TrEMBL record:
Species, as recorded: Herbiconiux gentiana
Source superkingdom: Bacteria
Ranges annotated as spanning the membrane: 6-21, 28-47, 53-75, 82-104, 110-133, 180-202, 232-248, 269-287, 299-326, 377-399, 411-434
Location (main, coarse): membrane
Membrane topology field: Multi-pass membrane protein
Subcellular location as annotated: Cell membrane
PANTHER family associated with the record: SODIUM/HYDROGEN EXCHANGER (PTHR10110), SODIUM_HYDROGEN EXCHANGER 7 (PTHR10110:SF86)
Protein name: Sodium:proton antiporter
Lineage, highest ranks first: Bacteria, Bacillati, Actinomycetota, Actinomycetes, Micrococcales
Length: 563
């Protein structure tokens, strides 16, 4: 791909994204279809990107951005379903698809078919999360889908490397698949955390929003490359770095946080549009490779095989999700019956709750599982994307003895067809499914409202404390009548102290601006303290802290030249 082609693809993808969003269509689906149609333009040549470029340049920023803005507390809270979907389902999908493909595609052995299974195993949550955000999916569902997307890529790529090594005849760093995955995950996470600590220390030293943002842009690529050099998971290194820096971002200035939100949002849009455009543009030439390898009839054979593999890929996820749903329902009922009938257990739980209450923690509760409606949505969010694209491009050309990799054209054609098929089938029907199920959760809505109100109360108490201290000990240079004006203004806006006053005089505006800065700082610390005590939901805290950043920016804009 030359520079002009790359530029045209990016500009075209962005334009199509804007048109699709205006018309209420799914950008990923529209971009893919437009790309496929554009590939038939006379004179258009195939676009070839090395898989390392896709994995090393596209995947790290997408994963880092998702982890940076995702609550680690929510990740841990939903760890069981996330691991089940992100690891268990990936392995099962690879094995089932591999066994089925080896049966229906003569060119594939069991080993090469498992390579295909590993390629199509990991869903890409980009489209699903975008649809869910727009249609208001419950936070619990969104957390599970986002968390799954941060884990499943590492599992799929590890399985892919093991399967490819077995077929090619080379050896992985560690022969045992389990030990290899543990090493890859452990070292990858360690690299990400260490790099995040170093980056955080450097950011404190810089104390300059543009430089801090540039450093943040380097982190995901550095984490990925360093982990890959150690033969560990670059994906998990990026995710760990994103989580660690996201957790420490409160130590950065508000300007850095606001700037990073806009920068990463723009990068996400750019990369996602490019990936789906590349997928559409490449599909025609993948089919041509099959034709050149096996003749005209082979195209129809491979296409027919892909149409057989696609339903298998679509059905494995619902079977897995509803198998977990049924098991959770049975486990929940058995546990509740046991607690109801066991007096000793009830007494022990009461003692534990009393101890937790004394430490300021919430009482122990039964785990909350997905409802059947939520399970239906999660089971239908299996659209494939960037990892499938990169892994398909990364299938080796030859074996260790120099002979061609068996079934490579078929693997790539089926993988691309399945990826586009999931976008067509699930991407088109998912919005209709979500609307028809009416997934509003009154209990969750009430809890969100309660948490938002609690955050307001915590902030209000913190601001009141700052105002009272200001009135008791006003600046020595402030006249008494100005202190009275501050008291009057606070009394008028006690319930909404974050709004900015219009300064009547330069001195009054200066003092009010400085006071508002102290109020916001006190509110920020109070919200973080309440969240760390587990008295405030992490997502509610994040939303409120984001509002404080915008308020502080408004204060700086109005009073900055006088502070």
């Amino acid at each position: 791909m030359n520079g002009v082609q790359l530029l045209l693809v990016i500009v075209g993808a962005i334009a199509v994204t804007g048109i699709a969003q205006r018309r209420g269509l799914q950008p990923a689906l529209v971009i893919t279809l437009v790309g496929f149609a554009a590939s038939f333009i006379p004179g258009f040549t195939g676009l070839e990107l090395d898989s390392e470029i896709i994995l090393g340049l596209v995947l790290p920023p997408l994963l880092y951005s998702a982890a940076l803005n995702f609550s680690f507390v929510s990740f841990l809270r939903n760890l069981r379903p996330i691991i089940g979907l992100g690891v268990g389902l990936v392995v099962v999908t690879a094995l089932v698809v591999g066994a089925f493909a080896s049966w229906v595609v003569p060119a594939l052995t069991l080993g090469t078919a498992i390579v295909l299974g590993a390629i199509v195993a990991p869903p890409d949550a980009v489209t699903a999360v975008a649809i869910g955000t727009k249609l208001g999916l419950p936070k619990r569902v969104m957390s599970i889908l986002t968390g799954e997307s941060l884990v499943n890529d590492a599992a799929a790529l590890t399985l892919f490397s093991i399967a490819v090594s077995a077929v090619v005849g080379t050896h992985t760093f560690i022969d045992s698949p389990v030990l290899l995955f543990l090493y890859s995950a452990g070292v990858g996470i360690g690299v990400g955390v260490v790099l995040a600590i170093v980056a955080t220390m450097i950011r404190r030293f810089l104390n300059d929003p543009p430089l801090e943002t540039v450093l943040g842009l380097i982190v995901p690529f550095a984490a990925y490359l360093l982990a890959e050099q150690l033969e560990a998971s670059g994906v998990l290194a990026v995710v760990a770095a994103g989580f660690a820096i996201g957790a420490s971002s409160r130590r950065a200035g508000y300007a850095t946080r606001l700037q990073e939100r806009d920068v990463w949002s723009s990068i996400d849009v750019l990369l996602e549009a490019f990936v789906f455009a590349y997928m559409g543009l490449q599909l025609r030439f993948v089919i041509q490779d099959v034709q050149e390898a096996g003749g005209p009839d082979s195209v129809w054979q491979v296409f027919a095989a892909a149409l057989l593999v696609l339903p298998v890929v679509l059905l494995i996820r619902p079977v897995w999700v509803f198998g977990s749903f049924g098991r959770n329902v049975v486990t929940d009922r058995l546990m509740r019956r046991k607690v109801a009938s066991d007096e000793r257990m009830r007494a022990r739980i009461q003692r534990e709750n009393a101890a937790r209450a004394a430490r300021g923690r919430k009482p122990r509760q039964f785990p909350v599982f997905l409802s059947w409606k939520e399970s239906v949505v999660v089971s239908w969010t299996g659209m494939r994307g960037v990892v499938t694209l990169a892994a398909a491009a990364g299938v080796p050309l030859s074996l260790a003895d120099g002979t061609p990799f068996p079934g490579r054209p078929e693997i790539q054609a089926i993988a691309f067809t399945v990826a586009v098929g999931t976008l067509l089938v699930q991407g088109l029907t998912l919005p209709v499914l979500i609307r028809s199920l009416k997934l509003s959760d009154p209990e969750q809505d009430a809890q969100d409202a309660e948490q938002a109100e609690h955050a307001q109360e915590v902030a209000r108490a913190a601001s009141t404390s700052v105002f009272e201290e200001f009135v008791r000990n006003p600046p020595a240079s402030m006249p008494p009548e100005m202190v009275e004006r501050v008291e009057e203004r606070v009394a008028q806006r006690a319930a909404e102290v974050e709004r900015q006053p219009d300064p009547a005089t330069t001195e009054f505006g200066k003092e009010m601006g400085a006071l508002q800065r102290r109020v916001i700082q006190a509110q920020r610390l109070a919200i973080i303290r309440e969240r760390d005590r587990n008295q405030l939901d992490d997502e509610a805290a994040r939303e409120f802290l984001a509002k404080l950043d915008y308020q502080e920016a408004a204060i700086e804009s109005r009073f900055g030249d006088r502070l």
